[in-house]
Specification:
By secondary structure, the protein is an all-alpha fold. It has one domain. Helices cover 63% and strands 2% of the residues. α2 packs across α14, α3 packs parallel to α5 and α9 packs antiparallel against α10. The radius of gyration is 21 Å and the shape is globular. The protein starts with a helix and ends with a strand.
Length: 375
């Protein structure tokens, strides 16, 4: 990334990741990042069902990826803060670092959006990195200045409060949800209304944005679920008890999200409260499986290495995927377009796997030289 990279990273470490890193967490992060690159570079609306987002209410495996990554951000910040506090850094120093890091992430997200449209009038403001930046910043402040019980209360307030806002606050010009207009109508909901008022012309879609302003509230709760998980992993319980706790909590989260979904549907575009519980539960189950296989049973080898490499340079991998995905777009890859004539889904899959491989090569090179870019 050359000189430009030096302006957006805090430092380039020339040493291997810290020895106290959790192997399973890096593995889970790498698997999530690989999945994110694949689904973000699908080139056909006829892609295989698991690689497409649900059109509105409901979910597919693709809808789990972004909240999984945000959940991992929450887990990771606990490990990071604990290490830095033990080294004598003050909370004020950590807050300043968090604000600066969040601002850089937000700026990178804006710049990546700008590559798609250089017109200021249509430059998209929200985005994946922007949501991560805001949720990470707020979750960090809550983590540094509150205890476990307070964090649980925060999650409850954010999820229940968001449900109450979306359910009972009238949408100007349309009325009360579930009374005058269907609950979570794609265009006539409060989140979409606010996005149009504040960011008209600067959204992913004309009438709404999946990373809009109001739905960032429950996204913070997703990060805080990760914080509670990180705190659990740092307790003095045995590894087996930790994994069992993760799995049980995950099953309960999935059940709770599914049940709540009957009244407040699971919806990725609006990041509904039921979606928070459901996806956090799924993330807990996946992390528990990773912990069991790699940290307890120590089944590590060639199959874990590629994901570990991606997991230790995840943000860099995401940025590269956006750049490479733009350079090697569907229109430039005649071979896969030809393949898609007989099987659009297969052509789309091959195209996205190619993008993943092209992203992996520079990340592999960086890993082999112990270069880890940190925002």
């Amino acid at each position: 990334m050359g000189t430009a990279a030096e302006t957006v990273v805090d430092r380039v470490e020339q040493t291997s990741p810290a020895k106290n890193r959790l192997f399973s967490l890096d593995l889970f992060r790498g698997i999530t990042m690989a999945a994110m690159i694949v689904v973000n570079n699908q080139s056909s609306e006829q892609a295989y069902w698991p690689l497409r987002h649900a059109e509105w209410n409901g979910w597919t495996p693709t809808d789990l990826i972004f909240p999984f990554f945000l959940f991992i951000v929450g887990v990771s910040l606990v490990f990071s803060f604990q290490g830095r506090l033990h080294r004598g850094e003050s909370r004020r120093t950590l807050i300043l670092h968090t604000i600066r890091r969040s601002a850089v992430l937000f700026l990178i997200g804006l710049l990546l959006n700008g590559m798609a449209s250089l017109q200021p009038s249509t430059w998209r403001i929200p985005g994946v990195l922007q949501r991560i930046a805001i949720a990470y910043c707020i979750a960090s402040v809550i983590t540094l200045y509150s205890g476990t019980r307070a964090r649980v209360v925060w999650i409850a307030v954010l999820t229940v409060g968001y449900w109450a806002i979306m359910r009972f606050v009238p949408v100007p010009g349309h009325g009360v949800p579930s009374v005058d207009v269907p609950l979570l109508h794609p265009d006539f909901n409060l989140a979409a209304y606010l996005d149009r008022k504040l960011m008209l012309g600067h959204m992913w879609e004309k009438t709404r944005d999946p990373e809009g302003l109001l739905s960032t509230i429950p996204a913070v709760a997703t990060a805080l679920c990760g914080v509670l998980t990180g705190e659990w992993l740092q307790t003095k319980r045995t590894p087996v008890k930790k994994v069992v706790g993760l799995f049980v909590a995950g099953v309960l989260g999935v059940i709770a999200g599914d049940v709540w979904g009957h009244w407040f549907p699971i919806n990725k575009n609006l990041w509904t409260s039921s979606y928070v519980l459901f996806t956090a539960g799924g993330a807990l189950i996946c992390l528990a499986l990773c912990c069991w296989v790699t940290d307890i049973k120590l089944h590590r080898g060639w199959w874990t290495k590629p994901f570990l490499i991606l997991g230790t340079n995840a943000i860099t991998a995401y940025i590269l995927s956006q750049l490479i995905g733009g350079w090697f777009g569907w229109d430039h890859l005649f071979a896969f377009k030809h393949l898609a004539i007989s099987s659009p889904a297969l052509g789309s899959l091959f195209h996205s796997v190619l993008i993943l491989c092209l992203c992996f090569l520079p990340i592999w090179w960086m890993y082999s030289r112990k270069i880890f870019l940190k925002v």
